From TrEMBL:
The keyword Iron does not apply. Pfam families: GntR (PF00392). Gene3D superfamilies: Winged helix-like DNA-binding domain superfamily/Winged helix DNA-binding domain (1.10.10.10). SMART domains: HTH_GNTR. It comes from the Bacteria. Residues 6-74 form the HTH gntR-type domain. InterPro entries: Tscrpt_reg_HTH_GntR, WH-like_DNA-bd_sf, WH_DNA-bd_sf. Keywords: DNA-binding, Transcription, Transcription regulation. The keyword Transcription regulation applies. This is GntR family transcriptional regulator. It comes from Kribbella hippodromi.
Length: 119
């Protein structure tokens, strides 16, 4: 599951975010405890706790004292908004700059994208 591309705690956070976006984890659903997560994936519990802590800081998970961690009611919308902003900043904006640099009109880009239909 984990690779060397980024710290494990970030990969944990990304996996949980993906599970929320795909519906594998629903809003208000309890997630594995950090100790369960650490045992299941054979990682240090402190690493798992750091990933979960990041998600709490981002408002994706919340704690119920003595019970565990749960998916925040608006987590899916929050994540979609963030991913949409990142998509435009990381993918679309550089694509438009490159198209302008090589002389592709914006209308050609729109026409090409429209040929794929609604996503």
């Amino acid at each position: 599951m984990f690779d060397d591309r980024s710290p494990i705690y970030l990969q944990i956070a990304d996996q949980i975010k993906n599970d929320i976006l795909t519906g594998a984890l629903a809003e208000d659903e309890q997630v594995m405890s950090t100790n369960q997560y650490a045992a299941f994936y054979r990682i240090n519990p402190a690493t798992a706790a750091k990933g979960f802590g990041q998600l709490v800081d981002e408002g994706v998970l919340y704690k119920k004292r003595g019970i565990g961690m749960f998916v925040t009611p608006n987590a899916r919308d929050l994540l979609r908004t963030g991913r949409k902003e990142s998509f435009f900043a990381d993918v679309v904006d550089p694509m438009i700059r490159e198209a302008k640099a090589i002389g592709i009109p914006l209308t050609d880009i729109v026409r090409h994208l429209a040929s794929y239909g609604d996503a």
